[in-house]
Amino acid sequence: MRQPLVIANWKMHGKSAFNEALVTEFLALLKAYRAECALCPPSVYIEQVAGLLRSSNVMLGAQDCSHIAEGAYTGEVSAEMLRDCGCGWVIVGHSERRQYHQESDALLAAKLAMAQRADLKPVLCVGETQEQREAGEAEQVVKTQLQGALGDLSDFRRLAIAYEPVWAIGTGLTASPEQAQAMHAFIREVVRELDARSAESLRLLYGGSVKPGNAAELFAQADIDGALVGGASLDPEAFAAIVSAA
Question: Which residues are catalytic?
Answer without folding.
Answer: 94, 164
